Amino acid sequence: MTSTIDLYWIPLGAGGTGFVRMNGRIYEWIVSRAHRRRPLDLYHTAMRVHVPEATFVVETMWPSPPGDPTERGVAAVGPVFARALGHTRTFRYEVRCWKDGALPDADQAIGGPKSVSDDVDTAREVISLVPSVPAHTWGRDPVDAGDMWNSNSVLSWLLTRAGLPMTKIEPPDGGRAPGWDAGIAVAQSAG
Length: 191
Prior knowledge:
Layout: E1 4-11, H1 19-34, E2 41-51, E3 54-61, E4 74-79, E5 92-99, E6 114-117, H2 120-129, H3 151-161, E7 175-176, H4 180-189
Parallel strand pairs: 2-7
Antiparallel strand pairs: 1-2, 1-6, 2-3, 3-5, 4-5
């Protein structure tokens, strides 16, 4: 098996009840009006990192299903909305690096998986960095980047810290990944 880092641009709310998609559309409508542009499609990102030993799914999700977090590869957790609320499941996110894990919405990714690297050392670096992802508050702008920290921030932070050229990694045409720029800014601010 070759080593690859495959990025998935998944439409926001894919596979869900419609609640996330609806809220994303409302959010994007408000943001687009503020920036005097048309609304864009919103994406959630996830990765499959293939190394000779295994394949890892790297993704940020709400804590589900209930049970032992190590069974789904939880490597870090962070608060949603306000740090003080992070002790409850509803206001907590988890960063997963799940060995041989599931990526249920992979088939809905626009254009399928996009390889961003085939270097084994870079793939191993991404995996090793997951436990050190900063646990910033979801929905806040931790470094005044003009973008909020969220699931996309986690992946762009990992790819930036692993040394990938981020100017070559973009969402599908007509779309954007809120939080992507925040992850890059946080990774670059750490030096």
